[in-house]
Write a structure and sequence with these properties.
Strand 1, helix 2 and strand 2 form a beta-alpha-beta unit. The longest helix is centred in the N-terminal third of the chain and has 33 residues. By secondary structure, this protein is α/β, with parallel strands linked by helices. It has a 7-stranded mixed beta sheet, sandwiched between helices. Helix 7 runs parallel beside helix 8. 44% of the residues are buried.
Length: 497
Amino acid sequence: MASLIWTFCYLSVLFGLSAYGIHRYFIIYLFLKNRKRVPVPAGRFEELPVVTVQLPIFNEVYVAERLLRSVSELDYPQDRLQIQVLDDSTDETREITARYSEKLRRRGFDVELIHRVDRTGFKAGALERGLASARGEFVCILDADFVPPAHLLRHTVDFFTDPKIGMIQTRWGHLNRGYSLLTRVQAMFLDGHLLLEQTARSRSGRFFNFNGTAGLWRKSCIEQAGGWQHDTLTEDLDLSYRAQLAGWKFIFLPDVVTPAELPVDMNGFKSQQHRWTKGSIQTCKKLLPLIWRSKLPLPIKMEATGHLMSNFAYLLLACLVVLLHPSTGGPQSGWMRTLLIDVPIFFTASVSVAIFYICAQRELNPRTWMREIMLLPCLLGLGVGLSLNNARAVLEAMFNHKSDFARTPKYGIERKAQPWRNCRYMPLKSLLPLAELFFAIYFTYFVFYAFRNHQFLSVPFLLMFQFGFLYVSLSSFAQWLPKFSWNSSRAPAALPA
């Protein structure tokens, strides 16, 4: 009886992961079908409209000045530009933003510095407060770690000549992609989402989301969709779906790239992933019933469901980690099981991930994509290593566990030689790395078990699980080791790139 229950759970998890794999194939299909449908503006503004650039900031001592300097270099008429510094900081970032804001005012810029005494609503609350005094018809939002190109507004604002367009999203670039193994793999993760998923959904008429930064909104679109709300940790995803439910159209511009800094420490990266995962499930609970009660076409409803529920895959992956055991290998082996179960699941749950990221790298890097995909095993391993962290986020959202908006630390790192260990912004310590280390040891034992019992086909699969948990756990612990000085020529990456 216990064996039957285990087999049922094991197969249920695998079939669930396969469903997500099939959805990933569908995204690839939509991307390839629509990638040449490049959006063009409906017209040109005879007189450029006023744009308000909102800069939500909280304790960003390392990057605040860089952000303000880059915004001041935007190629846009000063009399048509308002800069809102939404600074909720509690450290000397306040002095930095105040000093640089005054410097820009002396140069003729319209700069409004807003400092709240509390962080009600966190980022969403700051954006809501700024919107009340924004004089621009259109609002550009930039997080503190972004460095907008000078042409950002010039290459985007004319799309708003179509009165149905409510939001324009640009693609994120990566200032420190080559800093370490972690940043290179993160870049691959984001490239897949920001190129394939956003392009496929945008150009096929499906719903897609504002990524929280590096995009422009029509002010009236935000207001008609109900404004910024802070009952989820992903206020961007929440507002995006509410706006599209209200009939607004969005545009994604993959060729307009806005560079940003990737997290260089594992704990900061895990904190970011936890927030994104938990917020997406909160938004799913909030809006999915409204989507299915709406009069939207069935294909849009189905894709929205796949999108909003995508992070449940981490919960299934965490279940698989617990259920997986090489001494059983799942249901009894044989050619029938191989043909009907193993092969289909392998091509849907595993190969789909590889094809997804290979497709993204080929599109972005036609000449160097082969070099990039050499990191594919590391990407798969990191995805496994994150499964406990993100599964916890899914469960917290499902059971309405409240948590604050935990910002991702930014250190102003763009070059390998820049150290970060002595930086002041450190995520809270957690016991989760101990659980990740336990599973690393767990799979190390099963690697030896597989060798001893000549189960060689399972070894690469088990090694991926072992590496993923070992890398994530040790990288998490490394940040809490006694601090020491780095040689300026040495890169403080957890593993060599």
